[in-house]
Structure to design on (352 residues):
């Protein structure tokens, strides 16, 4: 929507991970280097952890897009709470292994035959497990058992695990000692610094075709860092919304006032919150249940209704702005069509 207004060839802050937009902060470059090191070693586990939205999946996509296809066959799993048998079924499905059995032993046999066939072709398998914090410890242990498939003293499959910070607790459990001994490197992603936020935004703007030197004023980057805590996913959400706001308000560049206005809007909405913490109220006991005829609770209800009214009012204002924009586009299109029609009629009336 705002792309043509600001001269972009595409949206610079899309939410879906795109390896083309990979930004190598110090921590992200280290994590990617560890993954590459693991590939070179051809054995062991690499574990990458980090908070929600710090770019683990983007790193995975970046690695997958640059794999040497000649000798590595890769599969990426995005896990839920799989038991060991379900994990094996997913491995079979992602590697497209021909399997007709109905038992765990037969699944393991089919996987082994597939891996041996790859080895005979001079290839090996790489399993990249995203959202690995969802796996129970016994399923992580199943991954270790898969790494026992070897031929000519070479592992036939290698696994990389990427997950949120809870993955650390799973791996550090007392019963996971054997798995820990197979980890050859691990890295933890952290949010971006103020300087990295500035470089991140400029990097994405440049890749999206932005030819304006100072679309965001220098003072805005520290404020964006403050509002997003330096988390890349939140930066993407916030910056995308800022550009939409700038377009609707017809701003030639983004300043502090625009940042604050968007932050206030997003804070009042039901979605798009910039808050990193989502607190959950503890369940009420029977003595804490809402008493409808209490004057204090009536006032609380009124406050809630006022907040809902403010949210709806903000939403309506946004829709009005959007309607005005669509109306402007339609008028512009009609004007272009009329001019084109006049030009055509003039050409037709010219003598040959």
């Amino acid at each position: 929507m705002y792309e043509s207004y600001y001269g972009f060839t595409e949206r610079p802050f899309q939410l879906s991970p795109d390896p083309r937009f990979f930004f190598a902060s110090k921590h992200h470059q280290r994590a990617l280097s560890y993954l590459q090191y693991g590939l070179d070693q051809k054995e062991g586990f690499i574990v990458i952890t980090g908070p929600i939205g710090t770019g683990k999946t983007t790193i995975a996509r970046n690695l997958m897009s640059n794999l040497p296809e000649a000798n590595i066959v890769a599969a990426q799993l995005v896990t839920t709470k799989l038991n060991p048998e379900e994990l094996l079924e997913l491995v079979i499905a992602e590697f497209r292994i021909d399997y007709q059995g109905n038992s765990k032993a037969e699944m393991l046999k089919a996987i082994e035959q597939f891996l041996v066939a790859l080895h005979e072709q001079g290839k090996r398998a790489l399993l990249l497990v995203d959202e690995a914090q969802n796996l129970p410890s016994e399923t992580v242990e199943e991954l270790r058992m898969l790494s026992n498939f070897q031929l000519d003293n070479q592992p036939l499959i290698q696994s990389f695990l990427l997950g949120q910070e809870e993955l650390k607790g799973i791996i550090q459990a007392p019963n996971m000692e054997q798995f820990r001994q197979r980890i050859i490197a691990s890295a933890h992603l952290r949010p971006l610094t103020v300087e990295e936020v500035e470089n991140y935004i400029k990097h994405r703007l440049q890749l999206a075709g932005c030819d304006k030197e100072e679309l965001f004023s220098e003072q805005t980057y520290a404020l964006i860092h403050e509002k997003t805590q330096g988390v890349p996913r939140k930066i993407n959400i916030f910056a995308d919304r800022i550009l939409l706001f700038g377009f609707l308000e017809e701003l030639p560049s983004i300043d502090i006032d625009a940042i604050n206005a968007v932050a206030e809007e997003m804070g009042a909405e039901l979605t798009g919150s910039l808050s990193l913490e989502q607190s959950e109220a503890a369940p009420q006991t029977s003595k804490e249940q809402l008493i409808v005829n209490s004057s204090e609770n009536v006032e609380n209800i009124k406050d809630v209704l006022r907040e809902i009214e403010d949210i709806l009012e903000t939403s309506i204002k946004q829709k009005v702005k959007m309607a005005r924009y669509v109306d402007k586009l339609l008028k512009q299109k009609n004007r272009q069509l009329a001019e084109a029609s006049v030009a055509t009629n003039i050409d037709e009336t010219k003598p040959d």
